Structures are given as C-alpha cells and as structure tokens.
Amino acid sequence: MNLSNGRPYLAIPGPSVMPDDVLRAMHRAAPNIYEGALVEMTQSIIPDLRRVARTAHHVAIYICNGHGTWEAALSNVIAPGDRVLVPSTGRFGHGWADMATGLGADVQLLDFGRSAPFDLTRIEQALRADPEHRIKAVLASHVDTSSGVLNDIKGLRAALDAAGHPALLMADCIASMGCDRFEMDAWGVDIAITASQKGLMTPPGLGFVFFNDRAAAVRATMARVSRYWDWVPRAAPEQPYQYFGGTAPTHHLYGLRAALDMIHAEGIENIWARHDVLARAIWAACEVWGQGGPLTLNVADPAHRSRAVTALRLGLPYGAQLRKWVEVNAGVTLGIGLGMSEPGDPDGKGFFRIAHMGHLNVHMVMGMLGAIQAAFVAQSIPHGAGAMDAAAAVIAAGSHA
Ligand SMILES: *Cc1c(COP(=O)(O)O)cnc(C)c1O
C-alpha cells in the first residue's frame, strides 16, 4: 500500500508548483528562433515582466538560475575593488555577498542573524560612516528564503536617502516577486533581480535583472563588463539573439508567457492578497501546533515574515522525521532547513520550510497542513490541538461570502 499515490505537491521554496497552463504551453515542437511568432512573443514578455516588478524601466533576461542573476547584476555595476554593503538576514544574504567576493568586490557584511529583519538604523550608521561614498551598492534580500525573513526595502531606500548616500540599491526578489508586495520604482530600487521558478511559476532556467537609469549610468562608467552578462544588448537588442546572448530559451518562453497571462488575469494586487491569506492560515496552524510542542516559527513577528516561505524549527529528531513522513505517506515535499545549523544539529535537520509561493490555493494549503497534522499524530510528535481549525478561521475571514 502507498498512501502517497495521487498528485504530488512540491512545497519547497523553489522550484514551485507549475500550473498545467504553463506545462501545456511548453509542450510543442521547436520553433523558428530567428523570426516570427517566438520573436514577437519575446517582445510581448518585456512589458509584462515590468508590470510584475512594478517598474517602467529596463529588463534583461538571462538563461540562468537565481545565482546567475546575482552575478549578472553585479557584473554590470561592480568592478574588482569596488565596495558593496550587504545587510544579511540568512543564507541568501551571505550567498550574494559571496558572489560579490568572487567577483573581486570589497564586501562589507552587516549580519543581522537568521530570524530578525534589517536593522535600518545600523545600516544608516554604516552609510554615514562612509563620507567618501566608497560603498557603490547595497545588496539587499527582500525575502531571505532560508530564514523566511521579509525585509523593508522601502525603508532601506529611506535610510540611504537620510544618509545622503548615492549607493545603488539592489534588491534580491527571487523569492518574493509575485508573492510579497514589491514596488521597484515606488520604493526607489535601482536594480531588482528575480528568477522564473518561484512566484513566476515557470521551470528554473530564466533569470531577470531589472534596472533603472541610475543603474544604467553606473554601467556606462564601467571599464569592462563581461560580454555574456552585459545587460545593454539584452535590454535593447538590435537582433533577436541579443535578448539571450545566443539561442533563445524557447520552451521556457512559452511557459513564461502562459504564467504572465495568468498573473495579469488575476492581477498582482489580488495575487499578493491571496498569498497573504494563505500565509497567515499556515502561520495560524503553526502557532497552535507550537502551543503544545516544540514547533516554533523562525520569525516571531508576522510583520517580518514572508508571504512566500515560512521557516520552522521542530528540533531533532522531529524535523527530519516529519519531512520524511509527509513525503513518503502524503506526497507532500517540504523544504529542508537551509543554513540553520546550531549546537547539537550541525546540518540544521531540526528545521524545515514550507513554501507557499505561486500557484497555490486553499485546498493545497489545507491539504499540506493536514498532511503535517497527520505526521504529528503518526510520529507522536508533541503538538497543540486545533491547528486546522485555526487555519480554517483565517481562510474563512479572508474568503468571499
Ligand atoms: C532561490 C533564491 C536564490 C537562488 O536561486 P537559484 O535559482 O537556486 O540559484 C537566491 N536568492 C533568493 C532570495 C532565493 O529565494
């Protein structure tokens, strides 16, 4: 007997669930990449991507994952020896910092741990302590996917302005875009990056770098930029191949086109609102489970939690047991703890993450929570009673009559 037979549910923070419309759009013969429908479709994708990022500025598309967009963005504005300030709230902040180090940047890290958001006062102090304006850019994770921390990017812009500092504001929105509210232009973000496989519901393999005219002006001062990562021809191509620095990622583009159609049909404000209700339902269940057992939400203050991913600590041996039980018995795959080692748990196996990004609705969230509820019972893991009711109450309050 295998209770997990049925539709599997990948609830890890990327890749996310692919909608059937996206999969269907990709299932076709290889197209002409030089002219015709594919080229026109690529052109149609550009303004629709801008709408998702809430920007009127430029976008360059890369055939890469999120790590590639880290490097792409840095390569256009950071030369070896340039200083970058990296406020970090988890593994992904450190990851972008490490990518900058690899490119020869002089990295100034401000580590805020892995369960608290940016301390904007400390960031402002660090900027004020740089009167010669050696810091060329601030690299900020909007959502750190390892910790589930949501950072205040608008507030970070205010801190830069209060310090009178001209550094570029660069935001990693790989987890957040299409899930948590993000407004590139209104918030004064100079460069925003994202990738296809999270809120954009398309398989991993496409990366996006949005940049404004301030960032373009910095790019223009660079002595040398890697030909492949250079955003200039990609954002303003004279030939179709220049969008991608080579062969177009044909089937990813069909998938992305379908995903953008879904996003615009629903409306980005409605998407953010849906993610908000579903995330709060998950948190409500987790809080109740935690009242009668060891489960804790990694980020205590809901205001600083992402609507895309939630990191949880269950401790050893339960964390790994629970993830395994729901995968084997319920067809639900939860995310592993990432960068969460602690004394007695060097691999962070006491942690796990629930992704709630992209193509998901109430029955998926309640099914996933129900699977966790069953795991608590099956594994005799101590937990509070009434979690499903708590989640249902949030959903009821957020639903239509
Ligand atoms: C997923 C993610 C990345 C890395 O993306 P990959 O596609 O795994 O390279 C970087 N930053 C954030 C915030 C992410 O969520």
TrEMBL record:
<feature type="domain" description="Aminotransferase class V">
    <location>
        <begin position="71"/>
        <end position="282"/>
    </location>
</feature>
<dbReference type="GO" id="GO:0019265">
    <property type="term" value="P:glycine biosynthetic process, by transamination of glyoxylate"/>
</dbReference>
<dbReference type="GO" id="GO:0008453">
    <property type="term" value="F:alanine-glyoxylate transaminase activity"/>
</dbReference>
<feature type="binding site">
    <location>
        <position position="353"/>
    </location>
    <ligand>
        <name>substrate</name>
    </ligand>
</feature>
<feature type="modified residue" description="N6-(pyridoxal phosphate)lysine">
    <location>
        <position position="198"/>
    </location>
</feature>
<dbReference type="InterPro" id="IPR000192">
    <property type="entry name" value="Aminotrans_V_dom"/>
</dbReference>
<keyword id="KW-0670">Pyruvate</keyword>
<dbReference type="Pfam" id="PF00266">
    <property type="entry name" value="Aminotran_5"/>
</dbReference>
<dbReference type="InterPro" id="IPR015424">
    <property type="entry name" value="PyrdxlP-dep_Trfase"/>
</dbReference>
<protein>
    <submittedName>
        <fullName>Alanine-glyoxylate transaminase / serine-glyoxylate transaminase / serine-pyruvate transaminase</fullName>
    </submittedName>
</protein>
<dbReference type="GO" id="GO:0004760">
    <property type="term" value="F:L-serine-pyruvate transaminase activity"/>
</dbReference>
<dbReference type="InterPro" id="IPR015421">
    <property type="entry name" value="PyrdxlP-dep_Trfase_major"/>
</dbReference>
<comment type="similarity">
    <text>Belongs to the class-V pyridoxal-phosphate-dependent aminotransferase family.</text>
</comment>
<keyword id="KW-0663">Pyridoxal phosphate</keyword>
<dbReference type="InterPro" id="IPR020578">
    <property type="entry name" value="Aminotrans_V_PyrdxlP_BS"/>
</dbReference>
<dbReference type="InterPro" id="IPR015422">
    <property type="entry name" value="PyrdxlP-dep_Trfase_small"/>
</dbReference>
<dbReference type="InterPro" id="IPR024169">
    <property type="entry name" value="SP_NH2Trfase/AEP_transaminase"/>
</dbReference>
